[in-house]
Amino acid sequence: MAFLTLTNLTYAYPNGFTAVENVTMSFEKGESVAIVGQNGAGKTTTVKLINGLLKPTEGDVMIDGWNTKDYTTAQISRKVGYVFQNPDDQIFNSTVYKEIEFGPKQQGLSLDEVKERVLHAAELVGVTKFLEENPYDLPYSLRKMVTIAAVIAMNTDVIILDEPTAGQDYPTMIRLGAIIKHLNEQGKTVITITHDMEFVVNHFEHVIVMANKRKIADGNKRDIFWDHETLEKSMLKQPHISRLSHSLKFGNNVLTIDEIVDELKEAKKNGHAEKERYEVVV
Ligand SMILES: Nc1ncnc2c1ncn2[C@@H]1O[C@H](COP(=O)(O)OP(=O)(O)OP(=O)(O)O)[C@@H](O)[C@H]1O
Ligand SMILES: [Mg+2]
Fold it and tell me: Could you tell me the end-to-end alpha-carbon distance of the chain, in angstroms, rounded to an integer?
């Protein structure tokens, strides 16, 4: 059985609105998975069900042998860390240091251990020089990094990042990719919600697509991003390089610049193909 499983999960908010319907998915220990899909598809609701902020209306969430129905949100937070979509829903301390130390402090660690966790997490996300600042004096993109550090500092087996890429500049996107890789190398399961398909291509193999409360696809990124029916249903855009490859009538599997360069080299080897492709471009 996978480390984390969601089985026939349905969730209705207290106002009666059903946001997630009959969703089943699973995650292995140490893998990184991207969840993508249009606004309102039910992505955030699904991950809040994983960390126990919400409890299923129907179905079960099992984490490392625990059914979330049998545990409090505080207990589950020792296994699953959730970085909120909106950092302002998460931040409540007056300095970055206090924000990051809050979680580990609750875990009953020694002061030295807490400090080590804070400094390590701050360094990883690049907020070390802001530790004594009020998080609310920092711009959105840095506030988001502070919330990521606060969750990393808790050292949970599962880490959920809800839209870490929103509003981030290019160097921060590179840093986010490196953070996810680092967490994987430590054996953590990282679940990331994002609207940035280039980021997905560059950092994930396993992709889950949600549309209209349901999971509509689950598999390898190459299959997902060349499945036009799924892309259309979920209103997702193919990555730029794949679209270029599609227009050039190259093979139906290209996702990256390196791969399209290989296709071009191959075309060059077979002289006639090069001419045909040139004609497609002009
Ligand atoms: N507290 C709530 N009460 C009632 N309905 C809600 C509540 N929170 C979210 N919803 C609704 O549930 C649906 C799914 O919301 P959810 O936030 O899970 O979507 P999402 O896929 O994360 O979207 P986005 O990409 O915009 O973040 C939406 O229609 C939303 O309006
Ligand atoms: Mg969301």
Answer: 52
Burial of 229 (0-12, 13-18, 19+ CB in 10 A): exposed
Check whether residue 56 and residue 75 sit in a common domain.
Answer: yes
- pLDDT reading at 105 higher than 80: yes
Q: Which of 97, 122, 155 is the last residue of a domain?
A: 155
pLDDT in the model for residue 196:
95
Ligand nearest to the CA of 195: 1
What Å distances lie between residue 181 and 190, 217, 251, 252, 254, CA to CA? Answer: 9, 24, 29, 27, 23
For residue 42, the ligand 1 atom closest to its alpha carbon is 18
> Sorting pLDDT into bands at 50, 70 and 90, what band is 278?
low
Strands 158-162 and 189-193: parallel
- Is 84 a domain residue? no
Over the stretch 28-74, which tens digit does the pLDDT of each residue have? 999 999 999 999 999 999 999 999 999 999 999 999 999 999 999 99
Q: For the chain, how many structural domains are there in total?
A: 3
Report the distance separating Cα 135 and Cα 97, nearest Å.
Answer: 9
Ion ligand 2, residues whose Cβ is below 5 A away: 43-44, 85
Closest ligand 1 atom to the C-alpha of 45? 18
In a domain, 118, yes or no: yes
pTM of the predicted protein model: 0.93
CA distance readout (Å), 193 to 67, 106, 242, 248: 23, 27, 21, 30
263: containing domain: 239-282
74 and 160 belong to one structural domain: yes
What CATH number is attached to the domain comprising 216? 3.40.50.300
Asked whether the predicted pLDDT for residue 282 surpasses 50, the reply is no
How many residues would you count in the chain? 282
Inter-axis angle of helices 96-106 and 111-125, to 10 degrees? 130
